[in-house]
Amino acid sequence: MITNKAHHGIKYGSVPFQIMSIMKPIIRTIIAEDNPQVAEVIRSVLTDFNVPKVGTAYADASLDRMFETYQAAGATYFVIEANGVIIGGGGVAPLENYDGPICELQKMYFLPVARGRGLGAQMIDRCLEFAKITGYTHCYLETMSYMEAAQKLYKRNGFLALDGPMGDTGHYSCGVHMLKELN
After folding, report:
1. What is the Cα–Cα distance from 24 to 117, expressed in whole angstroms?
2. Does any domain span residue 88?
3. What is the extent of the structural domain holding 78?
4. What is the pLDDT of residues 146-162, one digit of tens each?
5. In this predicted model, what pLDDT tens digit does every residue of 77-136 receive, in sequence order?
6. CATH number, domain containing residue 35
7. Structural domains counted in the chain
8. Residue 134 domain flag
9. Domain assignment present for 153
10. What are phi and psi for residue 173, nearest 5 degrees?
């Protein structure tokens, strides 16, 4: 097993990280066996970006049981897999503490190998497709103010900035709130 400390200690099997980075990743629905890798990806990305551990997704109890969490009605979570290794993910669930047909784009994080390859736009498309089929009329999201690349991606995909939060997700450290109308 190869463990590349520069890439968060994730074991990439017998395929070197450089080779894996050129393999075609797939987006699929999460399965229970993905839980440890998904939790490690999310925590690694949040640590890389110096995201506070309190008031953000880092502190969510659901990180260690993502499959189970996203079995709820109106929710789904997708992972990006390359050569059997999870390199990113994103999901949709009902917006917490909000009454209405609005979902939240949640826990969309990618390892460096997954960035800049169009996978973020593909993940958003997949999540919003689910949201529309499920009957949501809008999709809300929260992110950190210094995650500028993520904000650009969201804006390119039709999300508009809001003046403040909707619902109450418990992510009070996230200073950017956005919403997209689903057609």
Report:
1. 10
2. yes
3. 24-181
4. 889 999 999 999 999 99
5. 999 999 999 999 999 999 998 999 999 999 999 999 999 999 999 999 999 999 999 999
6. 3.40.630.30
7. 1
8. yes
9. yes
10. -85, -10
